[in-house]
Amino acid sequence: MCDNGQNAVAVSLSRRLGQAVRPRVLVVMGVSGCGKSTVAQLMAARMGWSVIEGDDLHPPANIARMSNGIPLTDADRAPWLDRIAAEILAWREQGQCGIVTCSSLRRAYRERISNGHADVCFVYLKGSKEDIAPRLRQRTGHFMPVGMLDSQFATLEEPDMHHEMVMTLDVNAPQAHLAEQACLHLDRLPD
């Protein structure tokens, strides 16, 4: 449990999520460097769910493009989004729960990977360019260069709190606290 004496984490639940049953699949989303992998791993450990790193599902050509500072097009992203959608579908068909990381920058991408299923929820790690750029500069061993952050923010369509299944978390809080608060909110939803 999280210490209630800590500063409150800004957690916003969409209207749809607030009225929904507990999701079976979570997609931790946001621009590169926002903490998707860490928060997903922390949530998966707490909940006992499987986790997939969405970057591992990119075709090699996408990794090469991004490594060279070339933004992906929608055509480049399509096979990657389809692989993520297939993983989500497999979990759902097997009655399993899981968490996948995926930038999910546009609403059309989110619709493509969730396929409209109400038990797929997006966990949006929201932060400004000023919040996230220092993290990217400190990160090592990842293909995404800092210079790509502008293109990520240019592509980003923030989730619609009225029409999408989304929980929004402020990236300025400690990641362990974010994961704990997200899990606590999910625990409050009916089965």
UniProtKB/TrEMBL annotation:
EC class of this enzyme? transferase
GO MF terms, alphabetically ordered: ATP binding; gluconokinase activity
Provide the Gene Ontology terms for cellular component: cytoplasm
Q: Which EC numbers does the record give? A: 2.7.1.12
Cross-referenced CDD domains, in alphabetical order? GntK
**Alphabetical UniProt keywords:** ATP-binding, Gluconate utilization, Kinase, Nucleotide-binding, Transferase
- Keyword Magnesium belongs to the record: no
User: Catalytic activity annotated for this protein?
Assistant: D-gluconate + ATP = 6-phospho-D-gluconate + ADP + H(+)
Kindly list the residue ranges recorded as spanning the membrane.
none
Q: Which SUPFAM superfamilies match?
A: P-loop containing nucleoside triphosphate hydrolases (SSF52540)
Q: Which GO terms describe its biological process?
A: D-gluconate metabolic process
Metabolic or biological pathway: Carbohydrate acid metabolism
Indicate the family of this protein: Belongs to the gluconokinase GntK/GntV family.
Instruction: Provide the protein name.
Output: Gluconokinase
